[in-house]
């Protein structure tokens, strides 16, 4: 990947100590999005990476996964499917609960949004424990979707998400990483 773009992206992400709870170093992707150059670079790098991967759908997780998944879907010319927190999707859904770095939650997916044979790329702003994407992958696979690839703007490898997703058979594409938290 283009090193200048990767540096621009990493440098644009502000750190907020003790948010949303004491002891959490919050990596704020909204500061990246405030920079047209950094936001554009992130979508360009993902597009180059997945242009020839045979992806048929992108799944993005609420809420920050929508911000990168949707523009990438347009760039790749494929559909975008949201995975949402409970009660937000209007049609019939399936659900999966999961653990977060700072809590517990459930995610839902429309049952007709993924069809057997879909080759799905899961996209989120940040990979921490991997709980969000593990739950998302279970939802997609239970509907017959194939999911081999994941993409993140930020990874926090110390929190174990990369190992968890590798054990699920996923490749991990990340634009930057931070350690020590
Ligand atoms: O790898 P994990 O430990 O699962 O953590 C990563 C997830 O946590 C954050 O979302 P959050 O649940 O805070 O939701 P939000 O995007 O709606 O703020 C982040 O955007 C990822 O989706
Ligand atoms: N440290 C962190 N910064 C931003 N988003 C997160 N989601 C889970 N952990 C996070």
TrEMBL record:
It is an enzyme of class 2 (transferase). Residues 35-155 form the Phosphoribosyltransferase domain. One of its GO terms (biological process) is purine ribonucleoside salvage. It comes from Ferrimonas sediminum. Catalyzes a salvage reaction resulting in the formation of AMP, that is energically less costly than de novo synthesis. PANTHER family: ADENINE PHOSPHORIBOSYLTRANSFERASE, PHOSPHORIBOSYLTRANSFERASE DOMAIN-CONTAINING PROTEIN. This is Adenine phosphoribosyltransferase. Keywords: Cytoplasm, Glycosyltransferase, Purine salvage, Transferase. Its main location: cytoplasm. GO terms for cellular component: cytosol. Belongs to the purine/pyrimidine phosphoribosyltransferase family. It is found in: Cytoplasm. The keyword Cytoplasm applies. InterPro entries: Ade_phspho_trans, Adenine_PRTase, PRTase-like, PRTase_dom.
